[in-house]
Each structure stands twice: as C-alpha cells, then as structure tokens.
Specification:
This protein has helices at about 1-5, 20-35, 40-50, 75-80, 95, 110-115, 125-140, 150-165, 185-200, 225-240, 265-280, 300-305, 325-340, 345-370, and strands spanning about 35, 55-60, 65-70, 75, 145, 175-180, 205-210, 255-260, 290-295, 315-325. By secondary structure, it is of the alpha/beta class.
Amino acid sequence: MSVLTKPRQTLLLNVDRNRILHGILKKTFYEQFCAGENGTESKATIRQLKDMGFRGVIMTYAKETVFDHRTKTQHGLGVAALESKKKGESLDPHIAQCVNVEALTGAGPTVTEAFTAGELPPQQMMDALDDICNKCRDRHVRILVDAESQHFQWGIQRLTLELMRKYNRDGYALIYNTYQAYLKSTPTILAKHLAESQKDGFTLGLKLVRGAYIASDERCLIHDTKEATDDAYNGIAQGALKQRIGDFGDSTAFPSVNLFLATHNKQSVMAAHQLQKHRLAAGLPTVPVRFAQLHGMSDEVSFSLLQLKDHDGSPEVYKCSTWGGMGECLAYLLRRAIENRDAVSRTGDEYRALKSEVVRRVKALFAFSAST
C-alpha cells in the first residue's frame, strides 16, 4: 500500500489504469473502508448504513496531499496538480456534492500551500466555503474539518476557528475542528480555542480522535505510549462532559461546546455515554455528545452503542466513510492499514466474546432440553 501511494511511473503500479490491480483492491481494501468511487455507489452505501440504525454518515472526499517529515516531501493528487494550478482556485466540484449527503472535507493545491504557511486560503476558497456553510446550515448538515499532518495543521486550525466564529452560534456547532489526542500539544491548543470561544461567544465544535498520522508526522510530537494517548483522550472527553478542562469550569466559566467522539475504543465511548447519562439524571451540567467510528472498523463498538439507544434517540451514532476514485483513496487506505496492524488483538477480544456467547447458548439449549 505504501508503494502504491508514491508517484507512479508505470502502468503496472497505477491502480486507476491497471484493471487487475484495481479489481483486487476494490474487492478487498476499498469496499471494506470506502463508500464508493462515484455518487451512485456512495449514496447506496449511505442508505445501507442508515438502514442499520446509524443516525447519519460523515462523508469525506479522499483527494489529499500528504507531507512526509522524514523525506521532507509531499505526495498525493494535490502535488501532481501543483504545476498546472498556481492561481487561486475554487473548491473542488466533487466536494460540493457532499453537501447533499452528510458532510465534507478536502481542498486543492493552492489551499495546501496556504495551510503550509499557516495562512488562510485564497479569498476564492473562503467564498466557496461560505457558500458551503450556508447550504449546510439550511439543510442541518454539520461540517467536520479533518485533522491533517502537522505540516498543514496550523493553517487548517486558523481557518476552522474563523468559520466557527461566524457560524457556530446559539449553542449549535455547525463547524467542528478535529483534535488529535496523541499529540502532546493538544491540551494547550484546546485551551487556547476554549478561550477564543469564551471571548468571542461562539460554540466550539470539538471532534476528538486519537490520531492517524503516526507514519508521516514527527514522532517527537506524539505521546510516547499508547497508554498516554488513551489517558489524554479520556481526560479531554470526560473533562468536556463534566465541563471542567484546565481552568475552565473552575476559576473560569466553561464556554459553549458540542462534543463529537470519534474512536474505536469501546471503553472510551461507553465511559463517556454513561458519564453523560449520569450527569443528565443528576441534573448536572454537561455538553451534547455524538459518537462515530470509521466505516469498516469496530462495528462491534458501533452496534454496542446502537443497542443503548434510548427513547430520545441518544446516543447518536455515526459512521465515517470516504469516497473517491481508487487512486484518490490510496493514502486514506494506507492509514487504515496502519491502524489495523493492531487488529489481531481487537479481533482476539471479539473472538473470545463470541466464543463465550456460543458456549453459553449451547449450554442453555441443552439445559432446556433436559428440563423438557
């Protein structure tokens, strides 16, 4: 997968031109993790997921540029277009289609250049985003801005704050920023954004993930152990639900926050759900929370949450999926492959749980037969 994401010079390694390679990937990695290569396939996947009981689907357009800090190089479809697109550009027309389904992400090469410099994108892009935000607001569709590799992240955060100031009002987050718990800097960044929210009176959209760029970001920026990342994630999630993060909620009033927990860790999501239920039952302050897992991963976690659905529709559970051509989705699929290197341990846990349930049912069957 890593080889296939690099610039391709031969037909053999071009997944869009090599029909055999395309077919193999389509029936294995692609259909496991992606919604479809076009609107028709994607909409069919969305209908299927909603029929399973999910509140909605978070759709991501896969076209992207990835920066590798080790080689100091960029690769991806955005890079291939740099030579032919040096002027300001509007939002890719494929992205605008996502407004008609659930949500959006993605940008073109001149935008990534601005993000690299920590700047806002060209005005043409800002105008396109305003148009998208207004349409999403009218259709009650939320916008979740993905985190990217740190090479681009400072510009993305600056842009997202500007959008939240403008559109996140009256306790409702139309725009969410994504915070990666595996980064050591996240608590400091979140504290700054909470302060901005309190100062300017907007609702902070807080989407919390563990992080997905360990293969391309500088390792020193990331927590040294998985346990430290877990502690950081749970600390932020439960702190938001208790309305106590750092000085906020203690010496300083806690600002308006909407929380979105995107994780495959069952312990984290169950603890968060139970904490919110407890605080609501006790009449204690908390924040709205929603949950999401990636399409093709941790279905056991997703369905465990769905089984807890109450009369008020909570918890709200979503699936996050990606759409785009095979070549466009390669970088995304590589990250999923990296994340699933620990799938054996998760599969082992699920296997033992299933085995225990089968044994229990067989014993119950024999016990019923003996009694009759």
